[in-house]
Amino acid sequence: MNIPYLDFDIVQCFVLRISDFITIYDILLYMLCYRSMNIVVAKKLTKDFNGLRAVDSVDFEIKKGECFGFLGPNGAGKTTVMRVLYCLIEPTLGDVKVFGINVKDKPTLIKSRLGVMPQEENLDLELSVIENLIVYARYFNIPKQKAAPVAAELLSYVDLSEKTNASIKNLSGGMKRSLLLARALLNSPEILILDEPTTGLDPHTRQVVWRKLNDLKARGTTLILTTHYMEEADRLCDRVAIMDQGKIITIGSPACLKEKHGGNLEEVYLKLTGRPLED
After folding, report:
1. CA 58 – CA 80 distance, rounded (Å)
2. HSE (CB half, 13 Å, CA atoms) of 166?
3. Structure confidence at residue 24 as a pLDDT band (50, 70, 90)
4. How many whole angstroms separate alpha carbon 223 and alpha carbon 216?
5. Order of strands across the sheet with 52-63?
């Protein structure tokens, strides 16, 4: 039997190509699995305040790398859910895990991997813009010599370099929101939690914040936000949880919810709850 001649260089090249293919395939598979991993899981999350049930047995999962929004009016329970996620308060009932860690077990570890942009402006009025960042970095055990250049870089990122040494009292509302975003990024968080990130901002500044958040999402940061702005949810969120009176009514992508129920997100909310979002 004649054995065909095989050129070693061709065989070696073929093997390398197969190896390259397997490597690329493995990487793509890993990326797909990575994106589908749940970074936050809540089961029957319930929170009571002095007999008042603010959050009523809600279930949700948030995937690594997505932007997930809680949509609803004031009093719907959105902010309470967020405060449980960043370990400011403990749930009354239910199980909540962030990074696979129960929020009751190791809150300090969870906090070290989070960035939080609160709804209220809790900047230190006695410190300058950059001092607010450097002092805040101490919470993450970031020494001043390392915090200073990081702070300067973040101020550039949010277009506040010209205000480095300015007093907080001299900043506009939009500048304060931008500084809060910079502060939330000091520890290079894996999850960024944003409670009404553009409330009170003019349309132009709101667009600027949206661009920054989309950029962070493109870099792999998981975004979790609350909002009552329909356009904000449409522009930023991969999925939204519509909340009303402490309950999650439905979860889905803005596009799917609009297609399923008809109209825009505000009309979807009205159809599902029987009342307008601005109530």
Report:
1. 12
2. 15
3. low
4. 8
5. 52-63, 38-49, 93-98, 101-102
Q: State the pTM of this model.
A: 0.83
Which sign does the torsion angle of CA 97, 185, 139, 194 carry?
negative
Rounded to 5°, angle at Cα 66 from 106 and 174: 90
Which token pair is 122? Answer: 């809790």
* HEC assignment per residue over 26-60: HHHHHHHHHHHCEEEEEEEEEEEECCEEEEEEEEE
185 by DSSP, 3-state: which? Answer: coil
**DSSP 8-state assignment for residue 37:** S
Nearby residues of 70 by Cβ (< 8 Å), 6 or more positions away: 76, 78, 81, 82, 224, 225, 226, 227, 240, 241, 243
Q: Is 46 helix (H, G, I), strand (E, B) or coil?
A: strand
CA distance 212 to 231: 16
d(CA 116, CA 80): 14
Task: Give the tens place of pLDDT for each residue, 68-122.
Answer: 999 988 889 999 999 999 999 999 999 999 999 999 999 999 999 999 999 888 9
> Can you state the percent helix, strand and coil of the chain, rounding each to 5?
45, 25, 30
Report CA 15 to chain centroid distance, whole Å.
43
How far apart, in whole angstroms, are the C-alpha atoms of residue 123 and residue 189?
A: 19
Other beta carbons within 10 angstroms of residue 211's beta carbon come to: 11
Q: Which residue has the tokens 């308060």?
A: 89
Sign for the CA dihedral angle at 82, 62, 200, 256 comes to negative
